[in-house]
Amino acid sequence: MLTVTNLSVSYGAINAVDGVSFAVPAGAIVTLIGGNGAGKTTTLRALSGLLRARGGSVTFDSADITRLPPHEIVACGLGHVPEGRMIFANLTVDENLAMGAYLQRDRQRIAESRDYVFGIFPRLAERLRQSAGTLSGGEQQMLAIGRALMGRPKFLMLDEPSLGLAPRLVGTIFDQIQEINRSHGLTILLVEQNARLALEVSSHAHVLETGRIVISGPSTELRTDPRLKTAYLG
Amino acid sequence: MESKIQNPPAKIPVAHFALLAALLVAGGIAFFSSHIDPYHLDVLTNIGINVILAVSLNLVNGHTGQFSLGHAGFMSVGAYLSAAVTLHFAPKILGGDDGTVFQTGALFLTALLAGGLAAALAGLLVGLPSLRLKGDYLAIVTLGFGQIIVVVFQNIEALGGALGLNGIPNYTSVFWVLAFAAVTVFTVGCLVRSTYGRGFLAVRDDEVSAAAIGLDTTRYKIVAFVIGAFFAGIAGGLYAHFRLTITPGGFDFSKSIEIVVMVILGGMGNTLGVILAAVLLTLLPEVLRPVAEYRMIIYSFLLIVLMLVRPQGLFNFKSGKGKI
Predict the structure, then answer these.
(1) Given CB 3.0 to 4.6 Å as the disulfide criterion, which of A51, A60, B146, B319 pairs with B70?
(2) Are the Cβ atoms of B322 and A103 closer than 8 angstroms?
């Protein structure tokens, strides 16, 4: 579904992502794991057009999206839940969701999307009128994912959904991520520092280190890989 | 689940009603204006012009979260162009005499709209390159624009150079000012409450997220900037036909800052607060007139106190940052 070939992104003279290649097959959950500064977030941002790639190409549904601006990439069906949640703090939950459906024109379909989001995150339906900045961390993450789902993506990129959440909530969020993938067939690219958790929910994983993919393979194999064990799984 | 979900009630009809009421009040005041002390009328006119300036800047600085420091520059473009239009066409259309109310009204409206459009065009030219950048660059670019436009007007001999334009016909009445203030508040208010307009608030709250859900953020910023500049141009036209003399120096940096202060004092993005701040900051120097030479010192001191006591804006009663 998504093919990344030799992607390079740099901030000035520094190469944050240096020749990364991987593919995400339709219906899968694929994860990118790695420590701080490995280039995970940079990769996602380049895929969704928030950052401009210096080299390489990104193909989505056999269309080249490497040089498209972000709003056109979203229109192709690529959703992005940015790191650190980044909800619109001064808008209500309801308005945040409405913004997520920004490119949708069909009211019927938007109403369906809302029911779909509330089905996954019933908590959001209880807090519709509340200003999003007053939600708890977990609720904000739910809202961020819900907002991305409102755009009816075919492919969802999640950037560190576990960041700063209580351990119990992390479990809930990850259950829901799997649920979205299972019941709705949404393809997911997950970026995560919590390697153990990421390997549990994904089918394939790629380990990034200073901008390059150093290990790739099925998640079940990587779970027992000695190289990962020492560095990431503790 | 579906029972809980309903769209927020439409607010537009209320806004329409408010616009109608404001226009009626403007008409009423204009009708009885011969009985009102001319000094009070002048103050009221100043208030109206400042409300237009503050509310239009609020669209850019408050609702969209950009920081423009060049609002007086756009005001000057509108002032000069509309004054040039009336000075050029008034003798041709009206001949020697004063013309009917209808004739002068049509001429004035055309001049104002021409001034507004010219200011909007200036906004587009300034905004296109600078709004692609994020952060504080816009403040620097608009600051530069505000300085440059003063120098440009000082050097255009056809527009009077440093002496400015004189003998501009006295077309601005309380009715025009209040009507345009009502239209500005109405337009900005409807815009930020519309589906399209929520994009401005989204860009303010988080530009990266806004881009990630598919908003063309640059376009939003430019639209806000151009609309803001348009109304600043209208305010400039009203100002020119009220003062009857305009000089480049009247639209300098301190005028821009004055408008920014109104927006900050009112609470960024809070339309009602910004209107009240515009009223208060126009009245304050008038009220302080008896203490003559200490006037500006007291005014500045009050501003510092207000900002220390209410940093979220004088009229912002909601917690947190600005709200629509």
Answers:
(1) B146
(2) no
Q: Is A95 close to B198, i.e. CB distance below 8 A?
A: yes
Angstrom CA distances, B259 to B35, B192, B254, B255, B278, stand at 31, 20, 9, 7, 8
Cα end-to-end distance, chain B, whole Å: 28
Three-state SS annotation for chain A: CEEEEEEEEEECCEEEEEEEEEEECCCCEEEEECCCCCCHHHHHHHHCCCCCCCEEEEEECCEECCCCCHHHHHHHCEEEECCCCCCCCCCEHHHHHHHHCCCCCCHHHHHHHHHHHHHHCHHHHHCCCCEHHHCCHHHHHHHHHHHHHHCCCCEEEEECCCCCCCHHHHHHHHHHHHHHHHHHCCEEEEEECCHHHHHHHCCEEEEEECCEEEEEEEHHHHHCCHHHHHHHHC
Tokens standing for residue A69: 């601006």
Q: Does A87 touch chain B (CB under 8 A)?
A: yes
| φ, ψ for residue A191, nearest 5 deg | -105, 130
Distance CA B109, CA B115 (A): 10
Parts of chain A with a pLDDT under 70: 234
How large is the ipTM? 0.73
Q: In this predicted model, what pLDDT tens digit does every residue of B166-192 receive, in sequence order? A: 989 999 988 899 999 999 999 998 898
* A179–chain B Cβ distance below 8 A for any pair: no
Question: Is the CB of B208 less than 8 angstroms away from the CB of A102?
Answer: no
Are B215 and B202 contacting, i.e. CB atoms less than 8 angstroms apart? yes
State whether B198 and A151 contact (CB < 8 Å): no
Whether A214 has its CB under 8 Å from any CB of chain B: the answer is: no
CB pair distance less than 8 Å for B212 and A115: no
Interchain pair A131, B322: CB under 8 A:
no
What's the pLDDT tens digit per position in A13-50?
Answer: 888 999 999 999 999 999 999 888 889 999 999 999 99
Mean pLDDT for each consecutive 10-residue tract of chain B (324 residues)? 44 67 79 80 93 95 91 96 92 74 89 96 93 80 92 91 89 90 91 87 89 89 95 96 93 91 87 91 86 79 82 66 41
Q: Does A34 touch chain B (CB under 8 A)?
A: no
Q: Which residues pair with A32 in a beta bridge?
A: A191, A206
Select from B132, B198, B205, B213 the residue whose CB has the most chain A CBs within 10 Å, as the one to mutate to test that interface.
Answer: B213
Q: Cβ contact (<8 Å) for B212 and A87?
A: no
Q: Counting Cβ atoms within 10 Å, is residue B249 exposed (0-12), middle (13-18) or buried (19+)?
A: middle
Q: Does B10 touch chain A (CB under 8 A)?
A: no
